[in-house]
Amino acid sequence: MDYRATKLSEQVPTGRKSITWWKEAHRLQLALCDELEAIADSLPAAIVNQDCLFAAKSLGRLIRDVHAYEEETLFPALTQVFPSSSDFAVAIDRLTFEHLADECYADDIAEKLLYLGTGGRDVNMEALGYMLRGFFEALRRHIAFERDHFSSAIEVLQTAAEWRAAPAPR
Rg of the Cα trace of the chain? Predict the structure, then answer.
């Protein structure tokens, strides 16, 4: 998968991240979800060690990069453009809380995949499959929620010259 070779934080210079970056982040996360699903489907008999290692090494970094961007850039921009929207405040609070849970979950999964990728097989494969599925399904729902709740606001932000100079509130 192409998420392996991509370090999201290096794609766009700091302070110039855009909606394009955010959409690419979603694409990379969904590609990672596909890889995690393939790993879950391969358990226990058809494990590809290298796939487990790549996923383990990419998982935490990708999730943390995206969450940092959203919390440091996107969410403040949305709040600036729509300061009186309680809908955005509630959605942002929900997503920020989910970020904490997702990062902890991603770290746990990465640890298991690293072990599996280095040849460890004394793992409860059924539990690991369940864990992988729970994570990638939740991440897919998280991305869908962001797209559903922020799509019109994203169009407003897209027209801004820079995020630090967001358009006047509507």
Answer: 17
Query: With the CA atoms of 65, 68, 70 and 75 taken in that order, what torsion angle do they form, in degrees rounded to the nearest 10?
Result: -170
Q: Is the pLDDT of residue 5 over 60?
A: no
| Pairwise CA distance, residues 170 & 160, whole Å | 13
Rounded-to-integer distance, Cα 36 and Cα 129, Å: 9
What is the C-alpha to C-alpha distance for residues 170 and 81, in angstroms, rounded to an integer? 7
With vertex at residue 137, the alpha carbon angle to CA 47 and CA 30, rounded to the nearest 5 degrees, is: 80
Instruction: Supply the mean pLDDT for the chain.
Output: 84
Dihedral of CA atoms 80, 85, 90, 96 in degrees, nearest 10, equals -10
**Closest among 161, 92, 160, 74 to 170, alpha carbons compared:** 160
Asked, as a colleague might, if the bond just before 44 is cis with ω within 30 of 0, I would say: yes
Give pLDDT tens digits for 79-117: 887 788 788 889 999 999 999 999 999 999 999 999 999
Structure tokens at 125: 């494969």
DSSP summary character for residue 73: I
